[in-house]
Design goal:
Length: 415
């Protein structure tokens, strides 16, 4: 246990002016290094948490929690399957869908697209597309009217807006006397959505389910059923339970399996970045070794006097541990304050830097998320603070042990 005398001497050594200014310089450098390392760790982990949260929210805004697909991409008896899965109390919504590929044309521009046939009244219960409409709405999709809703980047690429008529080309051909020709159908654009995810904004188009069934010759079949569950993190368990009760010719998948690579990559990157940035804190913390070694050499006479007055080796060791720990605590606290402030205001700091430099860090056509998100988690802050303080204490052990072994007679011989 620390006594007031050890604490008093340790604090006095820390704030006392030294003849050797180089020791003070290294102490200040160590504090700054620890502070910057801690701040960088907090900001980077907060951004990684934000990416994970935004990526999950964006993907799950289009992709369902659980998806039931038919063999060969067709599910014929889907109303009966829907009734069966809705008996599960954890399934809160369901919607059939038809997925196909096609080409969209508006004048000269032609663009490949993913066509999703939906029932508008059910789609809003399993996805967030309706809440992200820039113009129009999903309720404008009416069976037999051949209307279409486009992603904002897809609409820009073909130069279409609400009210324009576009041509949808289905790859499945129809046999005519002139040979096999692709099927064409004119659709009226009645809505434009923006999910802030380039993959979907640039390629996804929505039409009514009945129109999709006619165009792609699915009769009364669909591609599958999309489900929304009460707890999205329970989706893997619910999917396993459903697969045991459903027929063998259907395939049940959940969002963690269909997009596992994205979330696994973010988690791995978060761990790697933590290790890399922790090295900055470690280097700064071990600068304390140099500071204390020189401080011990500078205070050899004082140590010898304290020993002759009755101080035990353990007391001397505690004095220098306090001195090194105080440097680490000041640096860690400064880093915590700076890191938390930056993490909370990242949405203001980054745009200001982008405007000053004249370019965008996250180009929308390259990254899934174009804005730099931040999700400050106090658990991460606690781990970072504890790790930095532990490294600081670790760095004080060798110099403190060396100080405790100082021989008073040897130290005072030339004084």
């Amino acid at each position: 246990m620390l006594t007031p005398y050890e604490l008093f001497v340790g604090l006095r050594y820390t704030r006392a002016r030294r003849k050797n200014h180089f020791i003070s310089f290294i102490s200040i450098t160590s504090m700054l290094g620890i502070g910057l390392g801690v701040a960088a760790l907090i900001v980077v982990l907060s951004v990684m948490n934000g990416f994970q949260k935004e990526l999950r929210a964006t993907i799950l805004g289009v992709v369902s929690h659980i998806q039931i697909d038919g063999a060969g991409g067709r599910l014929a008896d889907w109303p009966k399957l829907t009734e069966q899965v809705r008996r599960n109390p954890e399934v809160i919504a369901s919607a059939p869908y038809l997925m196909a590929e096609g080409l969209l044309s508006h004048g000269r521009p032609v663009h490949g697209t993913i066509i999703r046939g939906i029932l508008p009244e059910l789609e809003d219960t399993v996805a967030d597309i309706g809440a992200n409409m820039r113009d129009g709405g999903l309720d404008t999709l009416v069976a037999g009217e051949y209307r279409i809703v486009l992603g904002i980047d897809l609409a820009r690429s073909i130069g279409a807006s609400v009210g324009d008529r576009v041509v949808l080309i289905a790859p499945q051909g129809q046999v005519t006397p002139a040979g096999i020709l692709p099927r064409l159908r004119r659709f009226t654009v009645t809505g434009i959505f923006e999910l802030k995810n380039y993959q979907y904004d640039s390629a996804l188009a929505l039409i009514h389910l009945e129109d999709a069934q006619k165009l792609f010759r699915f009769d009364d079949a669909v591609s599958g059923i999309r489900l929304k569950v009460e707890d999205l993190f329970a989706a893997p368990r619910i999917a396993r339970d459903l697969s045991q009760s459903l027929p063998a010719n259907v395939y049940v998948s959940d969002w963690t399996r269909s997009h596992a690579n994205f979330f696994r990559a973010v988690q791995i990157e978060k761990r790697v970045m933590f290790i890399i940035l922790l090295l900055i804190v470690a280097v700064a913390a071990f600068n304390i070794v140099s500071t204390l070694v020189m401080a011990v050499t500078d205070k050899r006479a004082d140590i010898a006097i304290l020993r002759t007055l009755g101080a035990a080796p353990g007391d001397i060791m505690k004095i220098f541990i306090i001195q090194g720990a105080l440097i680490g605590v000041i640096g860690t606290l400064a880093g915590l304050i700076l890191g938390v402030l930056l993490a909370i205001n990242i949405d203001v700091v980054v745009p200001a830097i982008e405007n000053a430099l004249g370019f965008k860090f996250l180009a929308k056509d390259v990254y899934y998320i174009s804005d730099l998100p931040s999700d400050l988690q106090w658990r991460d802050v606690s781990i970072i603070a504890a790790t930095a303080f532990f490294l600081t204490l670790l760095a004080t052990l060798y110099p403190s042990f060396k100080a405790a072994r100082t021989n008073p007679a040897e130290a005072l011989r030339y004084e």
